[in-house]
Amino acid sequence: MGKKIYVGNLSYNTNDSTLQDAFSAFGTVESAKVITDRDSGRSKGFGFVEMASAEVAQAAITALNGMSVDGRSIVVNL
Prior knowledge:
78 residues, alpha+beta, Alpha-Beta Plaits, four-stranded antiparallel beta sheet, two-stranded antiparallel ribbon, 2 helices, 6 strands, 38% strand
């Protein structure tokens, strides 16, 4: 069973594939989704990434929390 990770403070330009690329360096990404506004389609500035295992998820959290993605310092936690 994978672990779902919260990713916050995303740029409005960040999309699903950007998240997938950032997290794939740490292991298999089962899903990556930026949450968007239902009416406008614009990013809400956060998303979720599901990794293949808890160990891989923890490694990604440790490495990526506070890192810059699309010019924004992202918040990464469970």
